[in-house]
Design goal:
The protein is mostly helical. The protein contains six helices and no strands.
């Protein structure tokens, strides 16, 4: 019996958990850090997207304001060649495309927001939803950036027309 007891005492280490608490803490901390970093990356990506949208909105507002001013609109649209008419038709089409892209973005972001604001694990759900939609969001961000650049050129062209129409000859 004594032999059995000593064997049980020496084998009692086998009954202890095979993990070490410090390893679990380190692993859990690593996972938490990774999650927090990814959530922060999502927040940063959304913030960058917000900047692009704000810049595009500013350019579109400036173009709209320019065409509300009759003298500016006349300067830009009067005495056009066929190429200029086609250009302004394309600008109008691009503005419609901008609107459709922004509507798509709103739809995707509302889905992410709804999931993020739901339940106890809202941040996790939001992060997962963002990850699922990240390709579409990235594509929309690229489109928005391209539209902003294109519309900015159109705004600059309006400025050129205005300066030409007011220049003394």
């Amino acid at each position: 019996m004594k032999g059995t007891d000593s064997r049980n005492l020496t084998n009692s280490a086998a009954l202890e958990p095979s993990y070490q608490p410090s390893w679990i803490r380190a692993t859990a901390s690593g996972h938490i850090f990774t999650f927090v970093t990814s959530v922060n990356n999502v927040d940063a990506a959304i913030a960058a997207l917000g900047i692009e949208v704000t810049q595009l909105s500013s350019v579109l507002d400036s173009i709209s304001d320019s065409f509300r001013d009759i003298s500016l609109a006349n300067a830009a649209l009067s005495s056009q060649t066929g190429h200029e008419t086609k250009y302004w038709t394309n600008v109008k089409q691009s503005m419609g495309d901008c609107k459709a892209t922004l509507e798509d973005l709103v739809r995707v972001l509302e889905t992410v927001k709804t999931r993020r604001n739901s339940g106890v694990l809202g941040a996790v759900k939001g992060q997962i939803s963002f990850a699922w939609n990240s390709g579409e969001i990235a594509s929309l961000k690229q489109k928005i950036s391209a539209y902003r650049q294109t519309m900015d050129l159109s705004l600059q062209l309006i400025s050129v027309y205005v300066s030409l129409s007011t220049a003394p000859y």
